[in-house]
Specification:
Number of strands: 12
Shape: rod-shaped
Number of domains: 2
Strand content: 25-35%
CATH superfamily of the largest domain: Rod shape-determining protein MreC, domain 1
Structural class: alpha+beta
Order of helices and strands: HHEEEEEEEEEEEE
Helix content: 25-40%
Largest sheet: 6 strands, antiparallel, barrel
């Protein structure tokens, strides 16, 4: 085996020696004869150029993909940051919108307080009877604020109801829709007096009036002040439906002027002058 290895090494050295001699001879021959070797260069270019092109395109593609990968990673992070900023701005806009709406409501409530009703206080609605068996809401004002049972509660649109229970810091308000509720009213045009009662639903019912022959849909009722709870002249509601007679009186439904399903802030009337008309909050002039 050692002889075989020596023979193999000897053959390699002989081949290298022959190649060196031939290469040196070619160089000497070309230098002395100046033979045109352009065809050799052309052959080498044609042979090596495709390989170089392949290597170049491969390196370019890898570099392009790598750069795009990092660009996409950066773009994703930028998109996430912008999305977060947009969400924060949207929340700020919504809060500002709610603040504007609340400010408008409070300005209307302030105008009511300045209209001559008497001593009042603004309360926030913090709860509603979840079972809806009783039409009541809870407000965040109580005895310590001057709110007591039978205090009238209203909004700029009309009456809401009366306080039926007060603790030190909270009160329960019975809405006019409650089936146990009743309000003395007067027809705004004819000045005929009557009573509207709650039905437990979304409408009031005209329970009694001096003369119902001239009633029509759209007629307005305001408080008469005779129940000694609500000051005279506050909006109660408008006639929404007139049905056939049931005994002596027509079946008349009255839609409350106040939106009792979306109460947020209300005014509690702590004390009001007796037998004195107040300004209708929806009109520019006093109600006669």
């Amino acid at each position: 085996m050692s002889r075989t290895v020596d023979t193999s090494k000897r053959s390699v050295w002989i081949a290298l020696g022959v190649a060196m001699i031939i290469h040196t001879g070619l160089i000497s021959f070309q230098a002395s004869r100046r033979i045109n070797t352009s065809f050799i260069r052309v052959w080498m270019v044609d042979s090596l150029a495709p390989v170089e092109k392949l290597v170049d395109r491969t390196l370019y593609g890898v570099s392009h993909v790598w750069e795009n990968y990092f660009a996409l990673v950066g773009l994703h992070r930028e998109n996430e940051r912008l999305k977060t900023e947009v969400d924060e701005l949207r929340m700020q806009l919504e809060k500002q919108h709610e603040d504007i709406i609340e400010s408008q409501r409070l300005r209307k409530l302030l105008s009511i307080q300045e209209s001559g009703i008497g001593k009042t206080i603004v309360a926030r609605v913090i709860g509603r009877d979840p079972a809806r068996t009783n039409q009541t809401v809870t407000i965040d004002k109580g005895v310590s604020h001057g709110v007591k049972p039978d205090s009238a509660v209203m909004t700029p649109q009309g009456i809401v109801g009366r306080v039926i229970h007060s603790s030190n810091f909270f009160s329960i308000v019975q809405l006019v829709l409650d089936s146990q509720s009743g309000v003395g009213v007067v027809h705004q045009s004819t000045r005929r007096q009557g009573i509207v009662k709650g039905t437990g639903g979304q409408e009031l019912e005209l329970d009694y009036i001096d003369d119902d022959n001239d009633l029509k849909e759209g007629d307005v009722f305001i408080t008469s002040g005779l129940d000694r709870i609500y000051p005279k002249g506050l909006l109660v509601g408008t006639i929404s439906l007139i049905g056939p007679r049931r005994g002596l009186f027509k079946a008349v439904q009255v839609r409350p002027a106040a939106d009792l399903g979306r109460l947020e802030e209300v005014i509690c009337i702590l004390d009001h002058p007796d037998a004195v008309d107040v300004i209708d909050p929806t009109q520019e002039s006093p109600v006669p």
